[in-house]
Amino acid sequence: MEKRCSMNEIPAKDSIFINSWKLTLLVLILAAVVRLWGVFELNEKLDDEVILVPDAIRIGTYGTTENWGNHPQLSGLIMYGTIRLFGDNPVGWRSSHIFLGTASVALIFLIGRLLYPGSAVPLISASLLALDPHHIYLSRTTFMEIPVTFFFLLYLYLLLEYTENKRTTLPLAGIAMGLTMGTKAYFVFAIPLVVIYALHRVRQRGELTRAVVMDFVFALMMLPFAVYLLSYIQLFSRGFTFPDFVQLKMNWIWAQTNLSMDDFINRDFLKAGGTPAEWFVIPRFWGEQRLLNNAEGMFILQCNNPPFRLLVLPSILAALGYAWKSRSARELLVPLLFASCYLLILLVQRPILSYSSIVLVPFAYLALARAVTLTAMRTDREYMVYGWFLFATFIWGAYMFPLVSARLVPLSLFRPILSQVRYMVNI
Fold it and tell me: In terms of pTM, does the model score above 0.85?
């Protein structure tokens, strides 16, 4: 067996699974293809697009709208920008999410290289995200979970470039933090956790000076808050004062805590996605049936990617165990990010719907990829393990793609999945 490398070493033996940019580029191309293919053929508004698209137009035109008082409005402004650019049509509605969903795959690869250098984690985690059926589905629509996940991954990547490679990316990380805050509130625990990690790494190098602390205060406190407020510039320009803004946010918190599943018209469809406690434990399939005859059908299904997400919680435990054993803050970061986001979701006093699980998926797949590499390194067939795992990822993604993208499929081939669907809406 070849000598294994430590976390910070590059293995002596090169491998297509570790240092091949060609394979990485292939994964990114696949990510773009499955998010683009046929998405503009669906001319009608899907799911929450019936609310989000009109609201984006109103918020871009008037600076506010009733529904966007419930969430930060940056996602609506982004969509309004693409609608102005491409028109009030499927291209204008969905193009930004396609780009941000694909770019998230690139970011998880780059983050993996910084946290687990010289390993197959970057490629495996990027492949899992690229071909995750639920991430593909959400990237082809207009849910806010895609941009907020992208902005947080961008924030994490830029801050890791600062801590691990000493790049001058701290102000850029602050801007990305502000964009995250301006999109949705999933990462209120995770954002300070990354700051704590960054301070630990700087202190570990003996570079935590007064000047560095001031840099952190400006870049990771003042700058993000300014970016966050700028996303509401139209609101303030209409005469809103800062106390009015604070009251608006307090009203939002009150409204959210008083929501129940009965407040949702499509509650039966939403319940089919399961509760947060079930996302990584119980297989779930649900969605829309758009065409059906004796031999063929057309569907837009959602699922929690059972073959892989069911491995996430054991992988988190394995990653935590390895981090504890190796006394490595870097190894500990991903499991803690997953736990911090999941804890917030579990504690929130309102119904949390299945699409919220997508904000956990990047950390889930980084942990799963780490568990795969830790397992493979205990064998004398390390690269074979990587190859078979990636093969399974690609085969499953290729199999599920027609079911999440409204492709006409033979019922006989997909009956094993269709028989597991918990709730199907006829469109």
Answer: yes
